[in-house]
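Now for one specimen:
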Amino acid sequence: MPKVIHKAATRGHANHGWLDTYHSFSFARYFNPERMNFGQLRVLNDDTVAGGAGFGSHPHDNMEIVSIPLAGTMEHRDTMGNVAVINAGDVQIMSAGTGVVHSEYNKSEHEELRFLQIWVQPKELDINPRYEQNTFHAADRRGRIQTVVAPNGEGAALRINQDAWFSLVNLQPNLELTYDLHRQANGVYLFLIEGEADAGNTPLHRRDGAGFWDSDHITLKASTEAEVLLIEVPMD
């Protein structure tokens, strides 16, 4: 089973004062030709936004953008008319399609906002822009895999314009779980949000990433309390 390992300390980093950001893949001024993407996964940014600050209005098109707040509260506004508040425990997706302008701000003037910003290349181009968000309770992923994004929006999952699945799992020490991929042509990229765990017999620590492909499953085993994000995407 081929794999790629991205240790936390090897990520791109920029501190703009109001924004402290780490890039798992090439983004903005960080360019690494060996870290352009993982299949259709293009961006995974680990952002910390100061109180009252944020990303002013800016455009996107033909990209699936997923935001996962880890702490704090984010306010979203866009040209589709959406005004939304996204808290830790929520997941947001925006299919930019033919084009949309949006802004994202830390709603608190005093507390930091920490969130993961993830971009996936779309399956179909130039669709009508679309926005969704939902709350996913941590208790529902303790010791089991919780799907939060899926192609058809199965269950409570948000719908994505790609053959991609996002899942969260909270692992207890020594708990072992198997993640089964949905498509043979897909790979899975794991991002260890917190804790320590092995993925495919590869030890990972906080904020490490690892991608695996040419396999129909991946085994996870925690050595501490651990929170894992799994992003399954087409590799072609």
Remarks:
- Residues 12-135 form a domain with the Jelly Rolls fold (CATH 2.60.120.10).
